[in-house]
Amino acid sequence: MHEVDENTEMGLRNPSDALHILTRSGPATSGENRPRGGHQYVLDPEDAEPGPAGSEADSAGGRGCHVAKPRHGSFGERRSILDEYELTQIGVLHSDDVLELLTIYVREYHPYCPLVPAYLLGPSALERIRRVDFFLLTVILTIASRDSTKHSVIHRYCWNHAQSLLLKVLLAVPWTQTPRTVEGLLLLSEWLPHVESKYLTSGNPKDVFREGRTTWSLVGQAVRLGYALRLDRAAFRGNGNSTSQNQHQNRLIWMFTYIADRQISVRLGQSFWSRGPSLSSNFTAKDFPTLHPTPGLIDENYALILQANLELTQILHNAHAVLYSSTERTLSMIHEGDYPRYLDDFMESATHWDSRWKDMQVSPNIKHALRLLYEYVCLYINAFSFHAVLTRASRPRASERYRLARTQPLDSCFNGGIMSSPDARYIIGAISAARSLLGVMNELDPKHTLRYLPSRYHLYGLYAAVFLHKALDADAIQGTTQKEEVTSLAQRFIAAQKEVSSTESHICHGYSDLLKKLWSSNGSKRVPATQNDTTSSTTLVADTFPKALLQDPLYPVADSFGTLGYGDRMSTSNVPDLAALEGGTPDFTSFESYLFGSLWPELASVGDSGEQGCLDQDAQFGFNFGSVL
């Protein structure tokens, strides 16, 4: 009778609730296996198990390859759960290999994203690994072997196995529906295998953006699975006074999910909008006890580092949300000139963050990583002003179009010197941040520090190098000495990226080649001397806006009252360099035209022939346009 009362009390808001009631009411369902709580069901990681590791459905590493028989001598006669791991069964991995790779991961990668539970990283990891950890373990081994030539074969097997497990994650196979899977997805998004990066130098311009799209997909899957597991509730403080260790870990996972979401959203202009910390939560380092220093185990105060990252990421997200909230709002701010108050507020917050955290006692590598993120945020904020100046010169309001029909040289924006521009302090701030960012990157050891940074940090440097190149083209950087210093910074960064590369398929190898091509050119889109060596403002439009936007007949432009009307389609006769964009995704010579893609407007650049489907409309009319400004 009690069972009937429980079912009656359960809510019936949707078909999922009906299934919950059915799972509780069946006579064959035992008490231990019933969902806990009537309103949501979260798979208990302790109870979940993958299918037989040796079954054909779970096989990932074989695929026609013959490898040595597994050896278990190092385990003694006692069997371990690792014996059921696919890569151990086929003989690719042995216990010694696992321990070695775990050690590499803890030393080189874990400090930048301290998300993995301690039991998987300690000396007793082999004894404490569970079946539900297999996906996370595979990701850790894939990452740890990516920059080690000694483990190149293991790396390929691990990545193949990870891809097969990713399919199970996508299909929501029950044993994958755990917080450990979310952790694995987030880590993989930070350090993609280099075997995927080989497409960067394949010669196909669309492959330049493959790494970003893969990262976007992985973060999206992590966000969705996090919501499915109710991890988003960790964004709120519980009602009770005590919090279990699992709740602490779930909160940690969701904070890293939030950071990953905001970072990739700014980078691509496409957001998953994972729930961040609630307005009333105000989480600080004390809310992440598992990251506090532990004598003999954890020397770094990862809790403080996470708090600093959260605060800086929030500033970055707010800047993105305000400055690029929509096409109409962004153009209105540019033409009305009312954005300085926002830039001042954002920079005040960033400066306050710097004064608070710059003296934090952490290891040099972590301090450098925080500094890179800070300089990137400063560059991202101030660069809006630089683009606003160029946009006003190149795209006048609808009422001014006929009066300003004649194009202006690109360098006319700063023909009186940078200090004559009302936007001077913001543009100088952007140039200073870009130079500082590259300066920090150039100070780091390419083979012992830069190599192990998450991929997005290399993109911060890429963003800064392209910005400085565009600033030189616009004559915003004046004086022979300053130009030589900026060029030297960029050249050193390009050389460092080449040195970082452990193989030709390394993503930094591709970045180095692309940047070298850009900086070796005589200006980004300069017209030959026979045409008076000037670059028109309409050429700048072709350089700055994606082709999809230029071809849109309903592309909005602000009228004299600051409201938006719809201009006529821009013809190729009025845009000299638009022809360069007609062949699909531009080649790298026009990569600087994507400077204001927040980092890269990767989704907007994919498949101009309809390959991107719905994403193309997002690029034209939605959130992504703001990020290319």
Automatic annotation (TrEMBL):
GO terms for molecular function: DNA binding; DNA-binding transcription factor activity, RNA polymerase II-specific; zinc ion binding. Keywords: Nucleus. Residues 215-295 form the Xylanolytic transcriptional activator regulatory domain. The keyword Nucleus applies. Residues 1-71 are annotated as: Disordered. GO terms for biological process: DNA-templated transcription. It comes from the Eukaryota. This is Xylanolytic transcriptional activator regulatory domain-containing protein. GO terms for cellular component: nucleus. InterPro entries: AAA_Catabolism_Regulators, XnlR_reg_dom.
